[in-house]
Amino acid sequence: MRRQRQIRTEAPAGVRRLFFGVVVEIRSAYPYPVLIGSHILGRIGQHLEKTFAHGTCAIISDANVRPRFADRLKRSLASAGFRPTLITIPPGEKSKTLEKVGAICDRMLSAGLDRYSFVIGLGGGVIGDLSGFVAAIYHRGIPHIQIPTTLLAMVDSSIGGKTGVDTHAGKNLIGAFHHPALVIDDVEVLKTLPPREFNQGFGEIIKHAIIADAKMFKQLQSWKPRPSRRSVDLQRLIMRNIRIKAAFVTRDERDRTGKRAVLNFGHTVGHAIERAGNYRKFLHGEALSLGIVAACAISIKRAGLSSDQRDAAVSALRRFGLPTRLPRNFPRNKILSALKFDKKFEGGKIRFVVTPRIGAAYLTDTVTLDDIHETVSDL
Ligand SMILES: NC(=O)c1ccc[n+]([C@@H]2O[C@H](COP(=O)([O-])OP(=O)(O)OC[C@H]3O[C@@H](n4cnc5c(N)ncnc54)[C@H](O)[C@@H]3O)[C@@H](O)[C@H]2O)c1
Ligand SMILES: [Zn+2]
Questions:
Q1: Beta carbon of 150 within 6 Å of any ligand 1 atom
Q2: pTM of full prediction above 0.90
Q3: Measured distance CA(283)–CA(196) in Å, rounded
């Protein structure tokens, strides 16, 4: 059996190199490691043996991901002495419901999972949010392992401990903070991701660059979207984004002080566009791209962003095939009415994230509803 060995390296603080990639330690009030590399899926059992007692566990996945990766993971767990139960749900946002949570918990109870068991979420952000919420409430909370299979889930949703489901009243309204015990990013799984799904991950990546990392922004300006998805560059890019997200989260674990809220850059208008398109017209990262363009326009007016930098942000988004103009016939009035559903409008006060220059951002209450209306009509 091959043993994991550490090699000498000049990795940044909090990062260890292993032969299959790197381990990033998230140092928060709830610390956990993130493994980033390739061909990790088949060795996960071996890895978990070091931390988890042999016993029952659940793998929660969706019908697109299961046939591609679940058997390999299940075999690896079984050969390391675990007893995995595989639970598959239909793909997509429509599965993120309390009903599904109940049904999954019932399956886990009948499979004999107890309070010493753990849950693995194998899939995109939908599976991450749903399996995390199941882990948060099952026997009052059991460990959750995230194995994200979309770029968006790797760079964003698997980090930060937000879990939950949707209701008729809106998205993510029921949930819990439950940080993962471990996150495993195997970039090999991204090879089967449809290009549109892959590209939408760059919405969040470009957002991270704009709010916190001017150097990464520069790299993205010459990034070749497709060929590099196989390379170690992608692993580095994912690591960098995880560190950015984690840095904001650890300053404000429960999203109370406004520090974590900076991560919402582009999301005020982005979420409204997503909702106005009935969650079908645009993927999250695509709606976010339009939201970023809107936030840049507002930042020119309210935070002194230069129009050159706004143009650079727009071209970066275009580079990854992301939309930067609304279709001419898109009902803009629906966006404006969707804005009032935004959690950031609570209490009637607008909290909007602006960027004064690429690499920095802050929350302000100087943005008016008129600013947003004007920007949306020009989008
Ligand atoms: N918790 C958080 O902090 C947070 C942050 C951002 C987004 N989210 C949530 O994440 C969700 C969106 O995540 P997503 O974009 O990953 O969506 P998703 O989970 O629906 O995945 C997108 C599609 O890709 C398929 N898929 C996944 N991996 C694949 C692979 N490797 N190969 C082929 N197909 C694959 C899925 O079956 C699905 O059809 C939303 O529910 C959103 O609310 C949560
Ligand atoms: Zn987002």
A1: yes
A2: yes
A3: 9
